[in-house]
From TrEMBL:
Protein family: Belongs to the TfdA dioxygenase family.
Protein name: TauD/TfdA-like domain-containing protein
Membrane-traversing stretches: none
Phylogenetic lineage: Eukaryota, Fungi, Dikarya, Basidiomycota, Agaricomycotina
UniProt-listed PANTHER family: ALPHA-KETOGLUTARATE-DEPENDENT XANTHINE DIOXYGENASE XAN1, DIOXYGENASE RV0097-RELATED
Cofactors, names only: Fe(2+)
Any one Gene Ontology molecular-function term assigned to this protein's record: metal ion binding
Domain TauD/TfdA-like: 22-379
Length: 403
């Protein structure tokens, strides 16, 4: 029997009009043992719908690695390099992810103490909480009453030396239950979003691009983001804004000369907009916390310059200006009241849920607060890409620069 695909259940707050082509629940197939024909259908569906959910999945770490590798057969190792994060205490990812001993391409993430798991005698898992990363915080009293924030919006990528993974898998082995929590944006908007405990929040890069006004579409198809060497160490002393969608500009970035040894040829510059390899649609894909420079190409010959931002091209290096621009571009995509309703999909995890998502088409964020005795155990797998994301074509740029 071939796999079946049904629309993913949406929370009451979501606007169905913006999720028509987002998310499918997959049934009638074992994701740990796919035929070649079934995999082709899964692969096409992933790029068409960006998120695939398999309920009650049963996968070993080796099967999870094999499944993710099938989307990029030439990929070999974890997105940040096998076991590299475990020994890099100055990296802001340190302590949140740990490689499994026998399958280092698969990471263990979660909360609480886990014992006797896949060759690990005992490990203390740490869930990302906003007070560890944001400049401001919700009071401990409000946290205890169920208020929280988005931790950090991102795509999974090293953004130095290694290419972004095509696909990420999240596999929930232990999922604690608790009352609903309320995400506060705390940016002066008064925006809030009801979510289940420990949700993973997703936003579509395609929707983020589509809802932009034409003058910003004109800009983003011409823009490229330059990331620093060792970007997760570059921001180790900096703090994020209250929505998790970018950094405060307090001059706390580590000087490039103080970073570990690096090579200019390994520094990454990616288009703001990445092209979907199956649908051809454009996805706005910029890591909001890690951009060092923005390079803007001129408006193409024959296109209208009037009303365009940076019509003659530009190289932006002031971090405050860059972050204000990125926030203007990306903040509408996480708005809980955008257009008619919210554009965020907060996944309500159940035990043995397997979620595959198009890592080159979505941003996502950890959310929520657990108590010390609530054990959350997930396996995560994403592999450094064997190629770079594809940017907009000449025709795409001319289309959105034609006025």
């Amino acid at each position: 029997m071939p796999p079946s695909f049904q629309p993913i259940p949406l929370p009451p707050s979501a606007d169905p009009a913006h999720f028509v082509d987002f998310g499918r629940e997959v049934a009638d197939v074992n994701p740990g043992n796919l035929s070649q024909e079934d995999f082709k259908q899964i692969e096409e569906a992933l790029y068409k719908y960006d998120v695939l959910l398999f309920r009650n999945a049963q996968l070993t770490p080796e099967e999870l690695y094999t499944l993710v590798k099938a989307f990029d057969p030439q990929s070999t190792h974890y997105a940040h390099g096998n076991k590299q994060l475990d020994g890099t205490k100055k990296n802001i990812l340190y302590g949140y992810v740990h490689a499994l001993p026998h399958t280092p391409q698969v990471q263990i993430i979660g909360n609480g103490i886990v014992r006797n798991h896949e060759g690990i005698d005992e490990i203390q898992l740490k869930h990302g909480r906003h007070p560890e990363f944001h400049k401001t915080r919700i009071s401990e009293e409000d946290e205890a009453n169920g208020f929280t924030r988005f931790f950090r919006w991102h795509m999974d990528a090293a953004l130095y030396r290694l290419e972004p993974p095509r696909v990420t898998a999240l596999y929930g082995l232990k999922v604690p239950k608790g009352p609903m929590q309320t995400v506060r944006y705390d940016d002066g908007s008064g925006d809030e979003l009801q979510v289940t405990l420990g949700t993973t929040a997703f936003v579509s890069g395609k929707t983020m691009f589509n809802i932009l006004p034409n003058n910003l579409k004109n800009l983003v198809v011409r823009a490229k983001a330059k990331y620093p060497p060792h970007p997760f160490q570059w921001v180790r002393d900096a703090k994020a804004v209250s929505t998790g969608l970018g950094m405060e500009s307090d001059g706390l970035e580590v000087p490039l000369d103080d970073l570990p040894a690096w090579e200019e040829k390994e520094v990454k510059i990616y288009p703001f907009v990445w092209k979907n390899p199956v649908t051809g649609e454009l996805h706005l894909m910029v890591h909001p916390c890690l951009v060092m420079e923005v390079h803007v190409d001129p408006v193409p010959l024959g296109c209208v310059k009037e009303g365009a931002l940076y019509p003659d091209g530009a190289c932006l290096k002031d971090l405050e200006d860059i972050r204000k621009l990125l926030y203007q571009i990306q903040r509408p995509g996480i708005d809980p009241k955008a257009i008619t309703n919210q554009l965020v999909y907060p996944h309500p995890w159940e035990e043995n849920d397997l979620v595959l998502f198009n890592n080159r088409g979505l941003l996502h964020s950890v959310v929520g607060v657990f108590t010390k005795d609530q054990v959350r155990l997930f396996h995560q797998c994403n592999l450094a890409g064997s190629d770079a994301p594809i940017g907009p074509s000449k025709e795409d740029i001319e289309t959105w620069c034609s006025g």
